Task: structure prediction
Amino acid sequence: MSDVETVGPRAKARWSRLAALGLLMAGLGPLIMFLAGLLWGLDVSEDAGFFLVVGGLGLIASFLVARFGMWSKFVGILASLVIGMMFFWTAFSLFTPGSFFDFVAAILVVPGVLIGLIASIGAIVAGRRGHVSTTPEGGEARWIRSVMAVVVVLAVASAALTFLGRSEVEGSADQTVVLHDFEFDMASYEFAPGSTVLVRNDDPFLHTFTVEELDIDEAVGPGSEVLVEIPDEPGDYVLFCRPHSDPNEPDPEEDMAAELSVE
Result:
């Protein structure tokens, strides 16, 4: 049989529901990041189309794969590849469980893309062999339960780590730098050698306060503050956020970066 629709209105090729789950996860990742930006009052107008279109693609593909026959599995494959190419960078956030929205987007997009791709291919093979069912069975059912359980557990753990990991600095600092809306609050800074800088992250995403030439690389979690001591090394440098800049050549005009002078 070449198409599960010929078997019955509710019968679907094995692995179809798992593929639909993967695509649903992949689509929810971008939408959660977009929603976080809205809730925190970030300017999301320029990126709204990108996040909504890619997220919507995952949701639509999930519905088609779960509802229709063989042709929809090819849509699932294509959607998985597109989302994977557009959001490959979320993989780096798998190592930031203390930043809820970064981490949750990663555990939705990265496994979701892989599951959507592999399970869609598996559904095509199963459909051609006549392996269909009206409900998830056997290995597919176990995979669905396992994936959902792991995502929920990791999300809850990340929420706890993000909340418990929030830090506030006690005492005074010579200057303050605020990270908000994926920008530093000033285009350029002038710090005295040996001075202390309070860095505050007002975004729901992880940022860093990085100056490679000065060996400064401080991670600042959502809603957190850190103190940074400026070395006694006068000169002009580039201050940037590693996750949101080109680490090889951060550009204050294009990236989350700023000019920094120590004098």
About this structure: Residues 61 and 76 are 6 Å apart (CA to CA). Residues 4-164 form one domain. Residues 1-7 have pLDDT under 50 and may be disordered.
